[in-house]
Amino acid sequence: MxxxxxxxxxxxxxxxxxxxxVGLDAVTxxxxxxxxxxxxxxxxxxxxxxxxxxxxxxxxxxxxxxDLAADALAGVSGRDAIAALGGVWRSYARRHPGRYAxxxxxxxxxxxxxxxxxxxxxxxxxxxxxxxxDDADTTHAVRLLGATFHGYAALDAAGAxxxxxxxxxxxxxxxxxxxxxxxLIRSWETS
Length: 191
Fold this sequence. Notes:
By secondary structure, this protein is mainly α. It has helices spanning 8-22, 29-36, 50-73, 78-95, 97-103, 109-114, 117-128, 135-157, 170-187.
């Protein structure tokens, strides 16, 4: 019988919150059990092991970011769509560093297919519909956007761009990155 109202969803959300507070690598079953004031074995009715906990956090974070991206992309195209999608990742990494780290975890093929990952791919392809790209260039552009957004978001969230009195600011650099992506993808357009 579950104790203190534990459910898989409550355990996952607590793990995600804990990951944001202390880092994904510091989320252990012991630390998670402490948040509910239960013994570790009480968690095994809801999660299989530490890897399962991390996977559940990843799935939650992918779902959250897909919802945020869908909302941000409503009614925008071209550079504005690139900015909206990149902005979702950048702000999510800042607000939820542990959850964001979980989105970068490798998932097995079956889990990935059932996750919000395919939805992310479709949302990124939707961003690119504002450009005239063939299928191959669309795939290249999806990869380019993903690599750029995640690289920038991870470095930005870690404070890599905030040393001293850095001028230009990280936000100014971000705008240049967005301009560069838009120009580059436009240069791939086919007639």
